[in-house]
Amino acid sequence: MRDWFVGLLFVVGIFLELDKGVGHAENWALNIGGALAVGVAVFPMPWDTQSTFWITPHGFCAIGLFLSIAYVALFCADDTLDLIYDTDIRNPTQVIARLKLLYRLIGLAMIVSMLMAYILNTALKTEFRTFWVEAAGILSFGTYWLLKGWELRRTAAELKTVRAQVKKTNGRGMSIAPNSISQSQPR
């Protein structure tokens, strides 16, 4: 299973590197997260659990990966939400509010799982509970990725960006370009 996990970390790292964020901050966070995901794979956990040094290269990369993705979920996920107004989604304001809440909860879950893993590794020195807490962090990351993918697919954000039907506002977020509403194709 270790080989599968290491391979999956390489794939996640490559996808994070290839994924270009909407804004500069998101792009940087994704690039850093991609490099750190590869770092988690390259630097294995130490077999000596009695080590006095609290942070290892593996731990540094894992913590950095979770922080970079949590940053994206907490501070960058809202950048494309305005595009929901240009879809056939019912009650777009409610959908946007729910997505904002979900993105915040997912980002917080990533940070809490990372803190719990640290506490379990250092203060309580448990073995199996740490695995489940880290698994919860990975699950929250996967949940964010799936939810964001659903949003981007429903809003056709990438297609609209290529067609210059959206514009960045304040260097970060995206909004519907004024001339794109009349150019939108029916669904």
Kindly report how far apart the N and C termini lie: 44 Å
How many β strands by DSSP? 2
The count of helical stretches stands at: 7
**Which class best fits the helix and strand makeup?**
mainly alpha
Q: In percent, how much strand structure appears in the residues? A: under 5%
How do the SSEs run, as a string of H and E?
A: HHHHHHEEH
Q: Report the mean per-residue pLDDT as an integer.
A: 82
Largest beta sheet: strand ordering: 1-2
Report the C-alpha radius of gyration, rounded.
Answer: 19 Å
Q: Provide the low-confidence segments as ranges.
A: 181-187
Largest sheet: 2 strands, antiparallel
The portion of residues assigned to helices is 55-70%
Shape, principal axes of CA atoms: elongated
What would your notes on this structure say?
This protein is mainly alpha-helical and 187 residues long. The chain has helices spanning 2-18, 24-42, 57-76, 92-122, 128-155, 157-162, 180-183; strands at 166-169, 173-176. The chain has a two-stranded antiparallel ribbon. Helix 4 packs antiparallel against helix 5 (128-155). It starts with a helix and ends with a helix.
